[in-house]
Design brief:
alpha+beta; Yope Regulator, Chain: A; 6-stranded antiparallel sheet; 4 helices
Length: 156
């Protein structure tokens, strides 16, 4: 009996011209940070991602009311980056046409920024904590039997 599975979303490389479009539409606020993530640009406030590029479009993290409005746009959908049914909480993939409408993209990013700014700040963890947390606990060394001492042979 064949198993039913969700078809994987085809990978679409983010066009290089999408990065400056997104950056130009970001709110002019000193708390906004950008970083490269998975070949795209991600925008963060207080460590929380609020927007970014994905495929030929943009994603935004929105309040419940704004999500409903965004999902009503033709071509918008809940953001499922792996295409396996695991939707990213509060995040909407906007229609591809948004990249051709800078004012509308700017408006959605402003809403996303306002929402994400209300979320608790994410704390950075130190590299030392991360590496020690991922390593399994060291096993105590098993006691080896003491090496046998060689007997001195008496010369006769």
């Amino acid at each position: 009996m064949p198993s039913a599975s969700i078809p994987a979303m085809p990978w679409i490389k983010i066009p290089k011209e999408s990065h400056p479009i997104l950056i130009a539409a970001l709110p002019k606020d000193s708390r906004v940070r950008t970083l490269n993530m998975f070949g795209g640009t991600a925008a963060l406030v207080n460590g929380n991602m609020f927007g970014g590029t994905f495929a030929r479009s943009a994603i935004v993290k929105l309040s419940e009311a704004d999500q409903q409005e965004a999902l009503a746009l033709d071509g918008a959908e809940s953001f499922d980056p792996m295409g396996n049914g695991r939707v990213m909480t509060n995040t909407v993939l906007l229609p591809e046409s948004i990249m051709d409408e800078p004012a509308e993209l700017k408006s959605w990013l402003a809403r996303a920024f306002a929402y994400a700014a209300t979320l608790p700040p994410k704390r950075k963890t130190s590299a030392a904590k991360k590496s020690s947390a991922k390593q399994p606990a060291k096993k105590s060394a098993a006691k080896r039997p003491a090496a046998k001492k060689k007997r001195a042979v008496k010369k006769r």
